[in-house]
Specification:
Radius of gyration of chain A: 13 Å
Structural class of chain A: mainly beta
Order of helices and strands of chain A: EEEEEEEEEE
Distance between the termini of chain A: 35 Å
Strand content of chain B: over 45%
Oligomer: heterodimer
Number of strands of chain A: 10
Structural class of chain B: mainly beta
Largest sheet of chain A: 6 strands, mixed
Number of strands of chain B: 11
Distance between the termini of chain B: 39 Å
Largest sheet of chain B: 7 strands, mixed
Amino acid sequence: SSELTQDPAVSVALGQTVTITCQGDSLRTYYASWYQQKPGQAPVLVIFGKSHRPSGIPDRFSGSSSGTTASLTITGAQAEDEADYFCNSQDSSANHVLFGGGTKLTVL
Amino acid sequence: EVRLVESGGGLLPAGGSLRLSCAASGFTFSNYWMHWVRQAPGKGLVWVSRINSDGSRTNSADSVKDRCATSRDNARNTLYLQVNSLRVEDTAVYYCVRLRSYYDRGVYFDAFDLWGQGTMVTVSS
């Protein structure tokens, strides 16, 4: 399929660990990237490749992948991590770019 | 400072055309593939189009494929998006985005590492 599927919403208690997943056939071939978006702001890249973090992204953010599922894990979630998270990859043909529908993370 | 700044949004009539610009600064614009991504109010990110580094190749999403043209002027460090025959469903914030490519232990991969602040396009019926 040419889609990336994410759960619409996930919640986590402050300081606990949460995993956000992204499923799609293209993930067998291509790594997912992950973006954080806070209200009224542009998305920010948080994870790319196998589990690379851009400069300035806290090390509590990590990524992993298995088969058709990519995962973003936040270990010790903070209040400032409350945001929408989007995964992305190329589609299997490499002619188009896919985004998941996004996961709204609530930190309780 | 490394940045992308979009312009050209606003209120437009259905059936009309839009031309967005994205001014790049702080990096060698001609080295990067560039993309447009849009986001309807309260909705997710949707890829619109891309253009390779020298402007010779473009791809676009099926939703705009026959209505859009993506171009760039590397001498002016500027990316463009033209969309014709506008529809109400084209209403969105349009982001200009840089694609950065990486190589690590024998594997190539890429990611959208730089986003503009976005420009809002509202199409009225």
